[in-house]
Amino acid sequence: MQNREGNFIINRIKSVKYALKGAYLLVRFEPSIQVQVIIAIVMCGLGFYFNISSTEWILQLLTISLVISIEGINTAIEKIADFIHPNFNISIGLIKDVAAGAVFIASVFAVIIGLIIYLPKII
After folding, report:
1. Catalytic site positions
2. Residue-wise pLDDT tens digits, 21-64
3. Overall fold of domain 2-122
4. Helix 54-84 × helix 2-29 angle, to 10°
5. Does the annotation place 30 within a ligand binding site?
6. pTM for the whole thing?
7. Is 5 annotated as a binding residue?
8. Which Gene Ontology terms describe the biological processes this protein takes part in (predicted)?
């Protein structure tokens, strides 16, 4: 039984290692993620400047994590699609468009949430 628990813990540590590597690769090499990270830093700076509430911080951080996560999933979908079918394909194009649409929807709602939080403080 000890051996199984040891393997479980080692496997969880390896999983975290792979996840950190994936996050690093996204931030290091994907321009869309880099833009989202810069926006996230700016928004966090605004949060400190305007002294937003705990609830507003929670909503802002959830929104930031949602957009960046969906952007990462979109990147993975695009990489898989390009690997499976490197040449132009209508079906692959549709898949990529739908994934990009998910990022767009999350981004639009992130802007709305940002306006709800910051517009009253600015005006």
Report:
1. 71
2. 999 999 999 999 999 999 999 999 999 999 999 999 999 999 99
3. Helix Hairpins (1.10.287)
4. 90
5. yes
6. 0.87
7. no
8. phospholipid biosynthetic process
